[in-house]
Each structure stands twice: as C-alpha cells, then as structure tokens.
Fold:
Amino acid sequence: MAIHIEHLNKHIGKQHVLKDICLTINDGEVVGLLGPNGAGKSTLMKIMVGVWDTDPPQLSLLKGRWGVLGMNILPCEGKDRCGLQVPKHIGFLPEQNPLYEDMYVREYLRFFVGLRSKEQGAKNKDQLVEELIERVGLQREAHKKIGQLSKGYRQRVGLAQAMIGDPELLILDEPTTGLDPNQLEDIRALIREMGAQRTVILSTHILQEVKQMCNRVIIIDHGEVKVDKPISEIADLEATFREATAG
Structure:
C-alpha cells in the first residue's frame, strides 16, 4: 500500500485541524481529495510529505501504523524521526508553486536534479532534464526564464520538478488553479498520464476534475473524513459533496 494512516490528529495552536484521520491508499490509485477551504486538505498533504509533524500518538501501540510507502513517519525515540527516506519517493506540487522566476527552465530543473543527484545514479543530469522537459511538454518554452511563462507552463515546470526521481507517489495540491480552459485540459491529460504509472493524490475544488481523473474520492470537512468511496459508487458527486460539507 502507498499510505496507511490510523488515528492521525493535528493541532495548530488551539485549533484541531485534523481529527482522528484513518486512511489506506493502495498502490496505483488516483485519489481525489475534496473539501471546502480550511477543511484540512493541505495540512494532510504536508504531513504526508514530511513538511509538518503529526501530533504525538496517544498510545505507543499506534507506532508503526502511520506510514507512507511502507515507511513509518511517526516521531521515534526522543526527537528523532522515522522514515527520513520518505521524501525521496514522493513528488509534491504545493498549491503555491515555489518557482524561481529569474531562472531559466533548464537551469531550474538542472538545479533540482542536482539536489537529488545521489538518487539519480550515474545518469547524466542534462539528459534527465531533457527527459523531464519532453515528458511535460515544455520543449518550446525551455529556453525562457520561468517569469516569462504563462500560468499553465509554470504548472508544467512544477510538475516536472515533482517528477524528478520518478516518484512512486505524486501529491498535487490544486494543480489547475487559475488555468484557462486550454491549459486545464493539457494539465489534466498530463496528470492522467502520470496516474497510469503511480499513486496520485489530487486536491482540488473542481469536482469535474475528480470525475475525469480519479478512481476514488475522499471528502474532508472540519478536519474529518466525511466520505471515502470509489468514484464508481457515487451517482451524484455534487450532491454528495454538498451533503458531506453541509455542517
């Protein structure tokens, strides 16, 4: 399985952001993560990739039952952390795509390939960069600075960065926000292609995207999982979403 979570809680200050989350996501699934603003979707994703810590488990029995790609990411003895290898197996595109606008596309991707060069083996970095550019359809724009690119092509750069190392798990937070209709279809097609080869978790506010790209839907509201079903079992996703988030 790609992800296994039991009884995950997260507080930020006095706010209980995630409440007793229990999830299992299997290899090869494309999961749509839905919920209104502030529901806890981005927090859950950041915990999955190791950016944020979980709250300490209430019972030592839970240790080893919170994992990504078979690796435990609960706090271990003292301040140590298990699963430090987890990020090497995950591609992550956050909602605010963190791009260096003064860098050229090839320069930017070469920089990130260099950061992960140990995982790339002996393969030439320039060759890896060209393969990424071709994979996400950036050939015509690769000579430009990132700041000169349209929103859609910037998203492609972010997706290329997330694909470095050919990750087993791809986590995408609002990857199509702000795109025009043509850009939307291009990015959706690219995500569908990526989802054919790995596990994908896609956070979005666009229900149509989930219908088109996902085989499973998870709806979160006020930090709790309200719905977790295969898309084939949901006759009316809009009505299901409204009902799940009505409170």
